From TrEMBL:
Residues 1-24 form the signal peptide. It comes from Sesamum angolense. Keywords: Calcium, Disulfide bond, Glycoprotein, Heme, Hydrogen peroxide, Iron, Metal-binding, Oxidoreductase, Peroxidase, Secreted, Signal. Removal of H(2)O(2), oxidation of toxic reductants, biosynthesis and degradation of lignin, suberization, auxin catabolism, response to environmental stresses such as wounding, pathogen attack and oxidative stress. These functions might be dependent on each isozyme/isoform in each plant tissue. Disulfide bonds join 35-114, 68-73, 120-321, 199-231. One of its GO terms (cellular component) is extracellular region. The keyword Signal applies. Its EC number is 1.11.1.7. This is Peroxidase. Its cofactor is Ca(2+); heme b. The active site is at 66 (proton acceptor).
Amino acid sequence: MKMASSLLLPLLLIFPFLLHPAHSKLTLDYYNKTCPKFAKIVQEVVVDKQLAIPTTAAGALRLFFHDCIVGGCDASLLITSNSFNTAERDHKLRLPGDAFDIVIRAKTKLELECPGIVSCSDILAEATRDLVSMVGGPYYTVLLGRRDSTESRATDVEGHIAKPDMTLTHIIDIFAEKGFNVQEMVALVGAHTIGFSHCSEFASRIFNFSKKQDHDPTMNPEYAKGLKKLCANYKTDTTIAAFNDPMTPGKFDNMYFQNLQRGVGLLASDQVMMFDPRTKPYVELYAANQTAFFEAFSRAMEKVSVHNVLTGNQGEVRKRCDAPNTLKTQ
């Protein structure tokens, strides 16, 4: 017992959230004996997919965060709807198909290598970390041993996901309910350094903003002008989108925070962080110090990745990531 305690102490110092019973069942070497090629297979799939589709990293990061923040990291967001139920992924989230595809590809290969062993939630967590690192971001620790949920309901999503038109106080409250403080929230929102947003998500900032202002005055005028041109037909073509970070859109760095200082924040909920005294100090810190941003992002992602996980006999290890092993008809 003394030896076990001495081995556990360093982990608890690094991951204090492991004090939660479910978290304590996650380990770094969970698949070492049952599926030793787990990490290698996931990484191979990640590299192939990211090279083929450069927006995959941003899509997977968004998918992972949304899955974890709604009910926990249980891959419930991967389940498809059926005639008996509307699943989470169909709750107007506009989630990218490439993010789902990378998990499906990895799962297919892992089922051939070690059938019935690796959960879809672990694949998503591992793949997301690998993708973030591949596009220049930090390589943070991913504990393993999650189990998959057996259900997914669209009705569970509302109120858990922050939206661009929400007030900053509302967004801070949403994160606080999940156990994340303001600094962790700012670091996590820094994920917007990659990816894109559809015009409908920021149109109110660039078209008829007010009776006196055509566009949001906190925006750089030239930036607003360019977005207007890009989104001119967004009502007829809903697929039109802009990069969240127009300077280094494919690189995970701290340019996003520097953009906020220049009035080049795409979403209103992002730009306001530059002016609110609760968030401004962290925006300025991360804009000036990429290392500080990476360290804060890593700690926050490690915390997100164990949010309300299923372990032990909870849930299941799905045979297919898009459907529970047993279909529920009600």
